[in-house]
Specification:
- There is one protein chain.
- By secondary structure, the chain is of the alpha/beta class.
- The chain folds into two domains: 2-102, no CATH class; 108-315.
- Helices cover 58% and strands 7% of the residues.
- The protein has a four-stranded parallel β-sheet.
- The longest helix has 28 residues, at 221-248.
- It is globular.
- The model is unreliable at 168-183 and 298-316 (pLDDT under 50).
Length: 316
């Protein structure tokens, strides 16, 4: 689990120095910001922010090293260097967003033995030695974390549905099964309920999660909850899957899919894209579509240049 973000010169670059570190703490309250010496006993992974900030950088380049390190320890720390002041904060926000699937942040609703059992059961269903299965697992964890970032007080049914419903963009060996669940939501709901029952969930929780997974709940809060899950899934696609998707598909499919995913967001979600490091091809496609999907927002807040991301994220 990712527990710490370590800085070489904490007094100069850390939270008391400003530069936007309070935003990092607000977005990732379970990750400790600390000097390098605080990482004693952790598996410390050194990350170069200058490499991350390079214009042509694709975040997929770091995935194997970081996810392999996470598998080897229960206490992972990132040592971030190679930039200063606002540039370091921007890199920290983007890196923690990219790898929030390793954080497992919870709120009071999910800080229970039941949810711990659910997480353990969900984890047991994935053999992380296989890259495709590992991607499917971390995709689900990322969607759950986005749900908590968008709604910090999300209840257990919403969090469970985010974790267990089929991802927005399945890939690899799990693709056929998970894509089938998206096309046939009843089948996907059956799988979700089975996992919940194995974790000890009661009928009320199982029924509520089934409604959310099948989009068949009553009007009112259910519509709001399903919109939240759709937005979390869309942001998760841009966070985790967009680079791989662009490598595996032809251009005409890319534009159509990105437009569909982008349409799951509301204007108030656009600043969250400012926390996401996108490969150059993905960013170009996204920026070209913003004016079509959000004509009144694209010029004001959608797809800001990297130098303006921190200000956009803070002012939102």
């Amino acid at each position: 689990m990712l527990r710490q973000l370590l800085l070489s010169d904490f007094r100069t670059e850390g939270p008391t120095a400003g530069h936007g570190w309070l935003l990092v703490q607000r977005e990732f309250p379970s990750v400790q910001l600390a000097p390098l010496s605080a990482g004693r006993g952790a598996r410390v992974l050194r990350l170069d922010a200058s490499e991350w900030n390079a214009p042509s950088f694709d975040p997929m380049a770091w995935d194997g090293r970081i996810l392999d390190a996470a598998m080897s320890t229960e206490w992972l720390a990132f040592h971030l260097e190679g930039a200063s002041r606002e540039a370091l904060v921007v890199a920290a926000l983007e890196i923690l967003t990219r790898y929030q699937c390793l954080i497992a942040r919870r709120n009071p609703a999910s800080s229970t033995s039941l949810f711990s059992r659910l997480l353990a059961r969900h984890r047991s269903l994935h053999d992380l030695r296989h890259p495709d299965v590992r991607a499917d697992f971390y995709r689900a964890m990322d969607a759950w974390q986005w749900t908590l970032r968008l709604r910090p007080d999300a209840d257990v049914p919403v969090q469970a549905a985010a974790l267990l419903r089929a991802p927005e963009q399945p890939t690899g060996a799990a693709q056929a099964l998970r894509a089938f669940d998206r096309v046939h939501p009843v089948r996907g709901a059956d799988r979700a309920v089975q996992v919940l029952e194995e974790a000890g969930a009661d009928d009320t929780l199982c029924r509520r999660v089934r409604e959310l997974v099948t989009s068949a709940g009553p009007p009112g809060n259910a519509k709001r909850d399903m919109a939240l899950l759709d937005a979390a899934g869309a942001l998760s696609f841009f966070t985790r899957d967009a680079s791989a998707y662009f490598r595996e598909t032809v251009p005409e499919h890319r534009r159509r899919h990105v437009a569909r995913v982008l349409a799951a967001l509301q204007p108030e979600h656009l600043p969250w894209l400012g926390h996401t490091r996108l490969a150059p091809a993905v960013r170009a496609q996204l920026e070209s579509l913003l004016a079509t999907v959000f004509p009144s927002e694209a010029g004001a807040r959608g797809g800001p240049p990297r130098t303006a991301r921190l200000e956009t994220a803070i002012t939102g």
